[in-house]
């Protein structure tokens, strides 16, 4: 990337040397992209205004979004009309390109929401170590019920996810790691009672599964961490089960499915039988109609022939009578 000369209209995308903008420039350098660079990318895409939330907290995501906005015809049309970019525009545009926000790493956090959700853990603890613990580890707040995420794990940094569960809910966590040394990964779970020591952990397993059963409503932190500096790709899925009796892997559910299948087959058989009878009846009626039409046609033909024969006989009789009358008169 080019190094700018600083100032209000600087072109730097990495380091910035302006002293009078040092505070903003340092923040921009940490995020990986400066404000002037974002402005230039926005102008190229026809965008005049950018939402402050993604402008301040997700600059790298916004940069990647704007770099692709010209190539995305749908996105370009939307922004050419509205001249603005919001957080949901970035999400939808990346989704259309087959990408997600999770693939950009954990260092670009949603800081405002994380701060709100982590206040519970920091309420009665003023030490610097405990104050920065969750703000450094939480990568994103998990809000959906069931989803699959792909993310890159680099440099041994922990990637953690916040999830709140209600009482009697169960969360099925399944993960698989690929890349270099895929078994060099650890998986840890924290809750409100174990904020700094995990109550469950798995290490040196390239894939695994864990069923988290929540007895009371509380918050959980799920952390994945690479045990070396090799690049890896983590894919994991979370399935929320509202009630343990509704789990699809049990005898009761199988029995219900079997009964429903039998009933469905019976209904299908009845429908097939009725349809077959209707088709047969329609076929018989069609044949009867055709046969009746043929009979009527032949009857008309016979009537016409009969009338022709009678007419011919009458003509012959009358002709003979006139011949006989002429012979008598002579």
UniProtKB/TrEMBL annotation:
Q: Which InterPro entries match?
A: CENP-T/H4_C, GOLD_dom, Histone-fold, Histone_H4, Histone_H4_CS
Q: List the Pfam families.
A: CENP-T_C, EMP24_GP25L
Give the location in the cell: Chromosome; Nucleus
Keywords linked to the UniProt accession? Acetylation, Chromosome, DNA-binding, Membrane, Nucleosome core, Nucleus, Transmembrane, Transmembrane helix
Basic residues bias: where?
17-26
Keyword Transcription regulation part of the UniProt annotation: no
Question: Which domain of life does the UniProt lineage start with?
Answer: Eukaryota
Q: Does the keyword Acetylation apply?
A: yes
**Region described as Disordered: spans on this chain:** 1-32
Q: Where is the composition biased (Gly residues)?
A: 1-15
Membrane-spanning residues: 301-322
For this record, the Gene Ontology CC terms, alphabetical, are:
nucleosome; nucleus
Q: What is an example of a GO molecular function annotated in this UniProt entry?
A: structural constituent of chromatin
Ranges where the GOLD domain occurs: 158-262
Q: Which residues form a coiled coil?
A: none
Biological function: Core component of nucleosome. Nucleosomes wrap and compact DNA into chromatin, limiting DNA accessibility to the cellular machineries which require DNA as a template. Histones thereby play a central role in transcription regulation, DNA repair, DNA replication and chromosomal stability. DNA accessibility is regulated via a complex set of post-translational modifications of histones, also called histone code, and nucleosome remodeling.
Q: How does it assemble?
A: The nucleosome is a histone octamer containing two molecules each of H2A, H2B, H3 and H4 assembled in one H3-H4 heterotetramer and two H2A-H2B heterodimers. The octamer wraps approximately 147 bp of DNA.
Recorded protein name is Histone H4
From which organism does this entry originate? Ichthyophthirius multifiliis (White spot disease agent)
Starting at the broadest rank, the lineage of the source organism is: Eukaryota, Sar, Alveolata, Ciliophora, Intramacronucleata
């Amino acid at each position: 990337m080019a190094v700018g000369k600083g100032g209000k209209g600087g072109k730097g995308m990495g380091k910035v040397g302006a002293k009078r903008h040092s505070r903003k420039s340092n923040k921009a350098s940490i995020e990986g992209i400066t404000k002037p660079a974002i402005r230039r990318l926005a102008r190229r895409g026809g965008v005049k205004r950018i939402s402050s939330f993604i402008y301040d907290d997700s600059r790298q995501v916004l940069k990647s979004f704007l770099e692709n906005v010209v190539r995305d015809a749908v996105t370009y049309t939307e922004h050419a009309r509205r001249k603005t970019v919001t957080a949901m525009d970035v999400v939808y545009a990346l989704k259309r390109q087959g990408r997600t926000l999770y693939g950009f790493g954990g260092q670009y956090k949603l800081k405002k929401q994380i701060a709100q959700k982590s206040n519970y853990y920091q309420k009665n603890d003023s030490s610097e170590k405990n104050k920065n613990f969750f703000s450094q580890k939480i990568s994103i707040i998990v809000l959906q019920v069931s989803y699959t995420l792909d993310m890159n794990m680099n440099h041994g940094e922990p990637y953690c996810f916040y999830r709140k569960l209600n009482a009697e809910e169960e969360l099925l966590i399944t993960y698989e790691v690929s890349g270099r040394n895929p078994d060099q990964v650890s998986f840890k779970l924290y809750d409100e009672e174990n904020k700094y020591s995990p109550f469950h952990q798995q290490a040196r397993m390239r894939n695994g599964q864990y069923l988290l059963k929540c007895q009371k409503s509380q918050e959980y932190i799920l952390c994945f961490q690479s045990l070396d500096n090799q690049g890896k790709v983590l894919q994991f899925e979370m399935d929320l089960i509202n009630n343990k009796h509704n789990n699809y892997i049990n005898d009761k559910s199988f029995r219900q499915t079997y009964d429903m299948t039998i009933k469905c087959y019976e209904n299908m058989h009845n429908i097939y039988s009725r349809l077959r009878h209707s088709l047969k009846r329609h076929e018989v009626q069609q044949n009867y109609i055709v046969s009746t039409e043929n009979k009527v046609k032949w009857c008309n033909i016979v009537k016409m022939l009969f009338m022709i024969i009678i007419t011919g006989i009458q003509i012959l009789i009358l002709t003979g009578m006139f011949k006989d009358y002429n012979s008598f008169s002579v």
